[in-house]
Design a protein that fits this description.
With about 280 residues, the chain is α/β, with parallel strands linked by helices. It folds into three domains: about 1-10 and about 190-280, 3-Layer(aba) Sandwich (Cobalt-precorrin-4 Transmethylase, domain 1), CATH 3.40.1010; about 15-95, Rossmann fold, CATH 3.40.50.11270; about 95-190, 3-Layer(aba) Sandwich (Cobalt-precorrin-4 Transmethylase, domain 1). The protein is built from ten helices and twelve strands. The strands form three sheets. A four-stranded parallel beta sheet has the order 1-12-10-11, with helices on both faces. Helix 4 packs parallel to helix 5 (about 125-130) and helix 8 runs parallel beside helix 9. It is flat, with a radius of gyration of 21 Å. About 45% of the residues are buried.
């Protein structure tokens, strides 16, 4: 059995930056350090941070003193303002690509556009994006929902960084037909697009695909969907312990890809376990 890892897989720049900021804050040791929610969508890396003294909190009330690290997914600007007003040290780990989307949304709202966000309304990144529109944003998940918007509007479209380019094209097409003016910012992360392309290409060349990453990770879920769409049996797992020998029966080639929040050490453990299983099958 041959194990092939996607050319583009694992940590992206924004995640690396967030973890580096958290690590430096923890090493300082001069004050308590908190993350407001999960810093990234990978439970194993979040646990490693907690072991180093970086405590996860769900509200500012749980962090009366010290430093608070803002998630890589971004936050409501009112939350950041409140943290500063309370005298907390704010460490902004927002992904630069997400921050760019915030800037575009503020511009669109200020210029009178009805802001449309393509994304998952339950995702923290999308909630943060919408907050920057000061209540003037409509969130859609697909082209059908975009088709339900009123005719004749002046629309500004921004997209969650982990969405598929195909979904953006479909929504933009619907809005173009319904609007008197459409302004589009393609805020899909370039690293996300490369991961999706690599995963798709690899899935078409193997008998089984393994997608590694947090189950709460939007970009990892997207990789799973893309691989499944090729017709190749696809399995999403968080750790090597979840690998099932039955998935590999009869497979000559197994592909591995990983979400942008998945660290190299977890991918390496999955690859090592696959090699073990391959050896057992050969024996």
């Amino acid at each position: 059995m041959k194990i092939i890892t996607a050319e583009n897989a694992g940590f992206c720049f924004g995640v690396k930056r967030a973890l580096e900021l958290a690590a430096r804050a923890a090493e300082d040791g001069s004050r308590p350090v908190h993350t407001l929610g999960a810093l990234i969508h990978n439970p194993q890396e979040v646990a490693r941070l907690e072991a180093r003294g970086v405590r996860r909190v769900e509200s500012l009330d749980e962090a009366p003193v010290g430093a608070v690290i803002l998630s890589a997914h971004g936050v409501d600007p009112a939350v950041e303002a409140e943290a500063r007003a309370r005298g907390l040290e704010v460490i902004d780990a927002t992904c630069p690509f997400v921050r760019r989307a915030h800037q575009h949304i503020r511009t669109l709202a200020a210029e009178g556009y009805s802001v449309v966000i393509l994304g998952d309304p339950e995702h923290r990144e999308v909630a943060g994006l919408a907050a920057h529109a000061e209540g003037k944003a409509t969130i859609v998940t697909n082209a059908a929902e975009a088709a339900a918007l009123p005719f004749g509007g002046k629309y500004g479209l921004v997209v969650q960084t982990t969405q598929r380019p195909e979904a953006l094209r479909e929504v933009a097409g619907e809005l173009a037909e319904r609007s008197r003016e459409l302004r589009l910012f393609n805020t899909i992360c370039e690293a996300t697009m490369k991961r999706q392309e690599s995963a798709h290409d690899l899935a078409e060349r193997v008998e089984v695909m393994i997608v590694v990453g947090g189950r709460n990770s939007a970009n990892t879920a997207r990789l799973r969907e893309i691989c499944e769409a090729t017709g190749t049996p696809t399995h999403h797992l968080e750790t090597a312990d979840e690998l099932d020998r039955a998935w590999l029966v009869g497979a000559a080639r197994v592909g591995v890809t990983a979400g942008a929040s998945t660290p190299d050490w977890i991918v390496a453990e999955v690859e090592a376990r696959l090699r073990e299983l391959a050896g057992e099958e050969a024996g």
